[in-house]
Recover the amino acids of this structure.
């Protein structure tokens, strides 16, 4: 049986957010220096609230009872930490997310000791709010290297 | 002086974290969008959209009891959807290939990876208004055309794998 063909609906056949003659004005507003300055102030103003959120997710991470809950909290921290002004925390969380995703891709159970190290490092880094040190960056790098080695070892023994 | 048309746009933010909702609300406000509604999950968003018309939806992916993927599918395909064509920007820290593809296949218009930056958010919105995409209605999909790549040198009508099966080419 032949599948029916897809129907294409061009942009002029459905309602748009703005009329064509308004698009230019809005585009200009989105890109102007005044909007950029206001947005920078908004990010700065909200950083403290976002740090609270990172801390709450770090606590959820420490309480998490399984990999799914750990992964969920780690992804939230990864998404929030950089905007909260915690770039090293974001890097550690990104490392954990990548390790869990790679483990899933390669059908290898995540190493419990390494995950526990990540969880501890994230808790410490999140609580070190606003005083991120070179140590946090080093921890992010070392954990990422350890994660890569664990995945390599698992691939070799498979 | 009368307000610019974009200042009358209505946006809905669907996000379970109140701090992130506030950030997104204020970033939209900085760009001149004043009418902004909020919902903490997909189910609350659907209830709100029954009462309010919105021109733009920003939604998180991971939420309970209804996540952003289910919300997108509902908005695109449910018979009682208030606006199946509404632009949806999924804003998420879940940026693995599988989740992004799930979002695309549910019918999101744009995907914005957290961490959110003003520049990236505004670029997604600008893309939606400046280069609106055709919609596709197929047996298993309704949403913005998922093909982004235009092959300039190709002028033929056949672009899908199934097209070749249909005309008997192996």
């Amino acid at each position: 049986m032949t599948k029916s063909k897809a129907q294409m609906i061009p942009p002029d056949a459905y309602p748009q957010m703005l009329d064509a003659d308004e698009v230019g004005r809005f585009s200009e507003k989105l890109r102007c220096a005044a909007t950029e300055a206001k947005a920078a102030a908004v990010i700065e103003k909200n950083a403290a609230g976002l740090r609270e959120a990172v801390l709450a997710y770090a606590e959820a991470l420490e309480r998490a009872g399984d990999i799914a809950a750990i992964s969920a909290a780690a992804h939230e921290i990864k998404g929030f930490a950089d905007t909260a002004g915690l770039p090293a925390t974001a890097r550690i969380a990104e490392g954990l997310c990548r390790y869990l995703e790679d483990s899933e891709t390669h059908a290898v159970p995540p190493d419990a000791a390494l995950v526990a190290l990540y969880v501890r490092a994230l808790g410490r880094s999140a609580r070190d709010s606003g005083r991120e040190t070179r140590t946090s960056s080093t921890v992010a790098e070392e954990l990422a290297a350890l994660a890569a080695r664990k995945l390599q070892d698992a691939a070799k023994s498979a | 002086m009368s307000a610019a048309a974009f200042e009358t746009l209505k946006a809905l933010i669907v996000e379970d974290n109140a701090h992130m909702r506030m950030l997104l609300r204020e970033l939209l406000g900085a760009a001149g969008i004043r009418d902004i509604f909020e919902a903490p999950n997909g189910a609350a968003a659907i209830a709100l959209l029954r009462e309010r018309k919105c021109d733009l939806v920003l939604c998180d992916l991971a939420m309970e009891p209804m996540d952003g993927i289910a919300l997108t599918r509902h908005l695109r395909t449910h018979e009682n959807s208030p606006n199946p064509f509404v632009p949806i920007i999924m804003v998420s820290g879940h940026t693995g290939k599988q989740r992004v593809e799930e979002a695309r296949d549910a019918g999101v218009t744009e995907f914005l990876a957290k961490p959110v930056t003003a520049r990236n958010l505004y670029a997604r919105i600008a893309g939606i208004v400046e280069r609106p995409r055709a919609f596709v209605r197929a047996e298993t999909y309704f949403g913005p055309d998922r093909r982004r790549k235009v092959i300039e040198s190709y002028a033929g009508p056949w672009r899908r794998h199934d097209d070749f099966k249909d005309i008997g080419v192996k």
